[in-house]
Amino acid sequence: MNILQNNKITALLDYVFYRIAKFYIKHKEEFEWHSGFFYVSGLFAFWSLSIIFVIIGIVGVNLSSNSQTILIISVFLISFGVFHKRYTDRKLYEKLCKKYKNESNSRIKGVIVVLVCLMSFCIFILSVMFEVGFFSKH
What we know:
By secondary structure, the chain is mostly helical. Helix content is 78%, strand content 0%. The chain is elongated.
């Protein structure tokens, strides 16, 4: 069973991929859908790292900066590996184009995609700050 099929997170990631790839196709010439792959992989890595850093902060594990760097790089590499096959296939983009061809409120949905990406990055930064004890009283 493929965990990347038929769930709500995959549907959200597919839509983010579609919107970003569509944007790059409109404004660039080559490797447009690969941009969507990088955003989706990064987005998922930020979500995963946010959860990991909050858990680390709650448990009270103190990671060195080298360990944090290795963790961040590892999660990004795993995310890129997991999503590479799915989101570098042009056929998926074409399938999503057909699916969303006549969508309504596309401008609002585009703004929501941008906000999801920005908020994911902000939540990641906050979770790192939480893990390093930025919010704790000394």
